[in-house]
TrEMBL record:
SUPFAM superfamilies: Metallo-hydrolase/oxidoreductase. Transmembrane segments: none annotated. The lineage of its organism: Bacteria, Bacillati, Bacillota, Clostridia, Eubacteriales. Pfam families: Lactamase_B (PF00753). It comes from the Bacteria. GO terms for molecular function: transferase activity. This is MBL fold metallo-hydrolase. It comes from Neobittarella massiliensis. Residues 31-118 form the Metallo-beta-lactamase domain. PANTHER family: METALLO-BETA-LACTAMASE SUPERFAMILY PROTEIN (PTHR13754), METALLO-BETA-LACTAMASE SUPERFAMILY PROTEIN (AFU_ORTHOLOGUE AFUA_3G07630) (PTHR13754:SF13).
């Protein structure tokens, strides 16, 4: 038995290489349509929704029908992954929202002289007022569909020595600003017979920590990692160590985008042979 996984990148900072002239819209944000097919049955999940509703425009341009989406999963509580949900919610589709139990914790960026709010554009009252079906996930490994094989995972093991928390990223808890530990961050894992496909929004917990946690939790190797790596906030040494991990880990496909940053993307292109720069319009297919 095999599982087919298709990832359509609906929003990113840049278009996919070679698709610059197709009229696809880009913004600082991320959104991906995930299609999982098993035993002839197809499931669709929308992973993140970008900073605006323009990912809907890209989906239409790419000929993708989002009315069949069963779940919307928001990876973490930053605006560039969640604000587009307001536009999706207005479409009238039948779906269920999946967020972590700590998703509504206010988020800020320390600008030295002030704190900039960078969190959600909606709260729990919006979900209630608009009668949006929503699951507040508390389990570290949460199956999306009853038959399994697709999971949202959180509470990542922080064992990688070169992936510390970002001191500029803050949260408000109990009325006080404190270092953001991104306890609400989730990654999507699709489990096949021989390995895992891992999809991450920003990897604030660290792409190495995320991949290693997934491998330990499922007892299988990661075959593909796709998404942001947050190397935009890292120095050259950390980027080099991250790429070294991906080169020796046995991960066969590394698709990097969004918060990887221009220098990070260039480093992956130069030093990670099995990596590829993905963007709006990229389609990745896996059989696991």
């Amino acid at each position: 038995m095999s599982i087919q996984v298709t990832l359509h990148i609906l929003m990113d900072n840049q278009p996919a290489p070679g698709r610059e002239e197709e009229g696809l819209v880009c913004e600082n944000g991320f959104s991906c349509l995930v299609t999982v097919t098993e035993n002839g049955r197809q499931h669709k999940l929308l992973f993140d929704t970008g900073d605006s509703g323009r990912f809907l425009q890209n989906a239409a341009q790419l000929g993708l029908d989002l009315s069949a989406v069963e779940y919307v999963a928001l990876s973490h509580a930053h605006y560039d992954h969640t604000r587009g949900f307001l536009a999706f919610a207005g479409m009238g589709y039948d779906y269920k929202l999946l967020v972590h139990r700590y998703f509504f914790t206010p988020k800020y960026w320390d600008q030295e002289h002030s704190y900039l709010y960078v969190g959600n554009a909606f709260g729990q009252e919006y979900i209630t007022r608009h009668h949006i079906p929503c699951a507040m996930i508390s389990h570290q490994t949460h199956p999306v569909w009853e038959e399994g094989h697709t999971y949202l995972i959180s509470a990542f093991d922080r064992t990688c020595p070169f992936e510390p928390l970002d001191s500029c990223q803050l949260q408000s808890r109990g009325g006080e600003y404190c270092l953001d530990d991104f306890r609400e961050e989730m990654a999507l894992v699709i489990e096949g017979a021989d390995g895992l496909v891992v999809l991450s929004g920003c990897s604030h917990s660290g792409p190495v920590n995320i991949c290693q946690t997934a491998a330990r939790r499922f007892g299988k190797p990661v075959k593909a990692f796709v998404g942001g790596t947050h190397l935009i906030a890292a120095d050259e040494e950390r980027a080099a160590k991250t790429i070294e991990y991906f080169n020796r880990s046995g991960i066969e496909t590394v698709g990097v985008c969004h918060c990887t940053g221009e220098l990070g993307l260039a480093a992956f292109a130069d030093h990670c042979p099995h990596s590829q720069h993905i963007g709006v319009g990229t389609v990745l297919r896996f059989e696991i």
